[in-house]
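hey
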């Protein structure tokens, strides 16, 4: 619930309650420190707060190194107009198995877990609790807090390690994630059209639809990037939903819209695709400088345009 007294320009929405990985991502945003943090139940609520002007931005999970793209977030960004990604943040992910005090591991028959957390710890659970049942939870923290509900049927929960600071729970096992290198990528989403300045270590996010019933259209889309030396860090298909077999593509590319090679690729996409949605250019969370061949330097594209302008204006060739 939104605090009516909170200044929307100083309010940030996130998947709560306190202790979630989303909150850990929001802690990385300097501008959000000391401001109002609004806990919501899901991605849709977080983005609704931004669209309605009750929050200046929302932190949402967009991709996991183990499970891939977070489809609920991708679909929301594709269908809710006016949103822009203004920042990217990485959070290392691990889990503990917790229960109410006095519970032993042998007592556990049913486990509460957010579906993504469950997928990332399923191997451990199947090895150590081969006969367990699973109840999906709205968030990693809710998985643990719901253990104390009077009607709860769960004996334990998969939760973030920081849950011990929030609840009086017994830790039955630590480091139960199947991949110790798991990382979740979060994005800060706003309605601001101001594009963060390019740094040389940037990423651009798009959603691209393909023309209907055209053989080779996916290849044609990919060629817009490859012929300009633009590397893709994510490409994932999602159903558009209006007809069977119609898909949109969620694309993350290396570079900034102010880079000539990226801008030229976007122009190519715009000519080719019935719909290109620009979701934003922003600084990479890993700060890695983008590497590309010198033949795709800005100056090469600028010189080529000047050459063509000279031809059209009748200037003598050098």
């Amino acid at each position: 619930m939104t605090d009516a007294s909170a200044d929307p320009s100083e309010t940030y929405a996130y998947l709560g309650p306190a202790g979630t990985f989303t909150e850990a991502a929001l802690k990385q945003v300097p501008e959000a420190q000391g401001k109002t943090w609004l806990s919501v139940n899901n991605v849709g609520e977080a983005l609704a707060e931004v669209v309605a002007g009750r929050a200046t931005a929302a932190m949402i999970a967009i991709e996991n190194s183990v499970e891939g793209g977070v489809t609920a977030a991708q679909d929301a960004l594709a269908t809710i107009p006016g949103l822009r990604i203004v920042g990217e943040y990485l959070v290392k992910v691990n889990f503990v198995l917790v229960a109410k005090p006095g519970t032993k591991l042998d007592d556990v028959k049913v486990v509460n877990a957010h579906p993504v957390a469950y997928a990332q710890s399923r191997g451990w659970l199947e090895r150590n609790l081969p006969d367990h049942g699973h109840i999906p939870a709205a968030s990693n923290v809710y998985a643990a807090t719901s253990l104390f509900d009077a009607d709860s049927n769960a004996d334990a929960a998969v939760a973030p390690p920081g849950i011990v600071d929030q609840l009086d729970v017994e830790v039955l096992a630590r480091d139960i994630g199947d991949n110790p290198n798991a990382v979740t990528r979060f994005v800060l989403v706003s309605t601001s059209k101001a594009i963060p300045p390019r740094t040389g270590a940037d990423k651009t996010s798009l959603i691209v639809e393909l023309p209907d019933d055209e053989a080779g259209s996916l290849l044609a889309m990919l060629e817009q990037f490859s012929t300009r030396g633009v590397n893709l860090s994510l490409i994932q298909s999602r159903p558009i939903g209006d007809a069977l077999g119609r898909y949109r593509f969620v694309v993350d590319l290396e570079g900034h819209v102010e880079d000539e090679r990226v801008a030229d690729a976007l122009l190519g996409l715009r000519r080719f695709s019935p719909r290109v949605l620009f979701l934003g250019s922003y600084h990479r969370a890993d700060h890695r400088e983008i590497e590309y061949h010198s033949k795709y330097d800005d100056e090469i594209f600028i010189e080529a345009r000047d050459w063509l302008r000279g031809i059209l204006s009748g200037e003598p060739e050098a």
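The mean pLDDT is 92. The longest strand covers residues 84-92.
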